[in-house]
């Protein structure tokens, strides 16, 4: 990363730090779309966990990106060779794979954090019961 902007965003009610070459305004816009998608899924599916909503959102956006890429490849000028198309597609696929890996790592971290918070809440409840 050349500039490495660092911003804090809220997604699904959770605060996250993001470091990116993209300008903060752009990343805020992207984060807002992710937040809207996750929040919508959580509201419409009350039994859905944050982690599952995050995975479904990642799949949705990867699917959309792949479809756009396929449409672009289908309408590429005749001068663009098949090898050039495949190379561009491979690079995009690699980028998406890296994003999915990063999201998976963040998801694992959030799951661990969630478990710790649940234990803390249970301990606090137990302490409150013992006081009264």
Tell me what you see in this structure:
- With 132 residues, this protein is mainly alpha-helical.
- The chain contains three helices and two strands; from the N terminus they run ββααα.
- It has a two-stranded antiparallel ribbon with strand order 1-2.
- α1 packs across α2 and α2 runs antiparallel to α3 (82-131).
- The protein is elongated.
Q: How is this structure best summarized?
A:
The protein is 73% helix and 11% strand. The chain is built from three helices and two strands.
Query: How much of the polypeptide forms β-strand, as a percent range?
Result: 5-15%
Mean pLDDT: 83
Helix content: over 70%
Number of helices: 3
- Order of helix and strand elements from N to C terminus: EEHHH
Backbone CA Rg:
20 Å
Low-pLDDT segments:
none
The major beta sheet can be summarized as: 2 strands, antiparallel
Widest β-sheet, arrangement of strands: 1-2
Estimated structural class: mainly alpha
Features:
132 residues, single chain, mainly alpha, two-stranded antiparallel sheet
SSE map:
Layout: E1 5-11, E2 14-20, H1 24-44, H2 50-74, H3 82-131
Antiparallel strand pairs: 1-2
Helix pairs in contact: 1-2, 2-3
